[in-house]
Structure formats: C-alpha cells, structure tokens
Amino acid sequence: MNREQKEAVVANVSERLSRARAVVLTDFRGLKVEQMTELRHQLTAKGLDYMVVKNTLLRLAASGTPTEALLEGLEGPNGMAVGYDDPVDLAKVLTEFAKDNPKFEVKKGLLEGHVIDTAQVEALSKLPSREVLLAQLMGTMNAVPQGLVTVMAGIVRSLLNVLKAIEDQKAEAA
C-alpha cells in the first residue's frame, strides 16, 4: 500500500469514527472467509459497518476522537464494527455471531465516548431495541389517560344504572 492509499484509508476510517455512536473491536483469527462474509452481510443488513484496518492506520484515524481511548493496548489483528444509529443492534449481531462461531471474540467497545468491556457489550445486546423501548414508553404513557377514561365512564354507567332502577321502580308502582 502506498502513501496515498494509506491516507485515503485513514480519511475513510476517520470519517466513519466521527459519525459512530458505537464501536466494537473483535478478534476474528481462525474464521473462514465464508464466516466473515456472513458477518459482514448481517451487519450491512442493519446499516452497520465492519472493517479490518492495520493498527497503525487505525491509531492515526482515531487521533483526536473519543475512539482514541478504545485503542489503548491494541495489538494483533483486529476487526472493527461500527454502529451509527442504535448501538443495541451492533451488540446483538456481534454477540449472536460469537455464539455461533466460538473463534470469533468481542474484545471491547466504545459507547457514546465511553470504553466498555466484553461483559458490557453482551449486556447491551440483551436490551430491547430503540423501537421496542419507545413502544413500551408509549404504552405506559397511554395507560394513564385510558385508565382515567375507564373510571369516568364507570361513573356515568353507574348513574345510568341508578336512573334505570328508579325508572323501573316508578313503572312498577304505577
């Protein structure tokens, strides 16, 4: 790789890291090409990226960004998964893939500028997605007015039952 190609890679990776909400470093040693292709397809389907970049170029691309803290103690070949929207999707895809492929290992990650370890990445994968959380929130917010309407309708229903009973009483008396 000549200098111009390296500069292009650094610029590309730097741009992706600047947009990233979550970054996860992985160890992919021992995986076959077909397995890596499958992982890339799974990530791409969710709008996520996976790339393998030399550590030196990755350090250059990350300098001056919050990702710089993630690269401390970085050694060996590393794959980098990048999530731009929902970090839960990234964690779910990687942990599911790691369960099916024991040679694939999640090393550590970066979430909103904070370094997280493997256990925290796995815990993140167990959270519901953003859409599910929003639906649960809306359901909870909707329950309060719905309960109020039910109580108010019960009062009116009780009043109507009393009036009907009075009407029936007067009809029997007459």
From TrEMBL:
The keyword Nucleotide-binding does not apply. GO terms for cellular component: ribonucleoprotein complex; ribosome. Coiled coil: none annotated. InterPro entries: Ribosomal_uL10, Ribosomal_uL10-like_sf, Ribosomal_uL10_bac, Ribosomal_uL10_bac_type. GO terms for molecular function: large ribosomal subunit rRNA binding. This is Large ribosomal subunit protein uL10. The gene is rplJ. It comes from the Bacteria. Keywords: Ribonucleoprotein, Ribosomal protein, RNA-binding, rRNA-binding. Part of the ribosomal stalk of the 50S ribosomal subunit. The N-terminus interacts with L11 and the large rRNA to form the base of the stalk. The C-terminus forms an elongated spine to which L12 dimers bind in a sequential fashion forming a multimeric L10(L12)X complex. Forms part of the ribosomal stalk, playing a central role in the interaction of the ribosome with GTP-bound translation factors. One of its GO terms (biological process) is translation. Transmembrane segments: none annotated. Belongs to the universal ribosomal protein uL10 family. HAMAP family: Ribosomal_uL10. PANTHER family: 39S RIBOSOMAL PROTEIN L10, MITOCHONDRIAL.
